[in-house]
What we know:
The protein is mainly alpha-helical. The chain is built from 19 helices and two strands.
Amino acid sequence: MYGKAFAPEYQGALTTLSVNSSLIEVLAAGTRQLSEAERAGEHGEAARSGLAVAEAHRRLGQIREADRAWKASYRAARAVGDLGAMAWALWSGGTLARQRGSFPLARRLLGLAAEMGERGGDVVVRGYSLAGLAETGRIQGDYEAVARLHEQLLTEARRRGEARHTVWALEGIAQIHRQRGEYDSAYALFEEAAQIAGGADDRRGHAWALRGLADIVSARDGDVERALALLSEAETTCRAMRLSSALAYNHKMRGNVLYRAGRYAEARDTYERALAEFREMSEPRGEALSRLGLAKSLARLGRDHAETAAELADLARELERIGLRHAREMVARAHTELGVRPQGDSRARRQGGTGGRAQEGSGSGARAEADGRARRKAGLPEQEGSGGGARAAASGVDAQAGTGGPAPRAAGGSAAADPVGRSRGARGVRLEAGR
Length: 435
């Protein structure tokens, strides 16, 4: 039996906020409480209010603000030696790193958060941090390594009657089944997640479950209209709660559904919209997946084979750079599906009528053109150049930025590197919208 879903990341004076509170409401209340705590010199309350501020910024896609907020929360917690609050701040930073595609940093911060939560006796943050590690591995395509952890976390969440965490675990396991082509079991898991989320009034979890159901209904059953209806229902929730990342992934899935149905012009427009949204929040995984869908749609609409080959080659490099282990397989499937030979293949060059250098340029130009169209469709301002400079400027959770102070200690008692300490060699890293 599950109770109502709750949001453990809203702490201290903010416990009255619910899992369904608007992110704008959370940000306003958190900022107000944070200012009061800082004026009063209450570091513990500043750490907990700052956590809510960091999470609101992250879920709204405001990356730089989220980066500053989680680090400030960590420092405030460290000032009073509050291990639980330090662990929550590290969890927020690790989730942000995953959202931005920096998987090694995400694993490091989430691992520290789980360890610190255990030492501080906070089983909830430990569970959330282990869940974050599991989700990071799943997103990277390391299904075998994290499947058992997902199952263990599901068992623990069921035992505690924790609806929100149960829903998360069910959806993660469902995604693994779906990627393996096990559509029936994936559907059943998404369906159970939707039922539990609905009963527990977890609107965010319900929206993600509906997206999963739409994917299965489209891929397995070919039921386009039902899939689109499920996505429209989820979109209503995403808009009401200002869930920027969830909304972008909803649009990307809508593009998938339209593409499978052979509605390529609609799919192109929808992928362009999702692409602009992901670029606006500097989310490289969503951006790359939207680009892949867009490239396939444009190919179906008659795009030159050489341009398609150049785009797919660039995408393969980007997906591998991000760290998605199944990237090569995804791009290979696209080549086979579209009948486009990989760039560099002599037959592909003859077919396109251009040399490799020309292909590279055409792919880059097509991306810039598509980016401009996508930004206009989403109502976003135009950028100078191709958008790469803006993405670079938005990057930068310094793996180690901040001030000194006591470093967290490893379980064995040895000092661990402070995740928010200074390092001359630290470099900003482009860091997926998490939940």
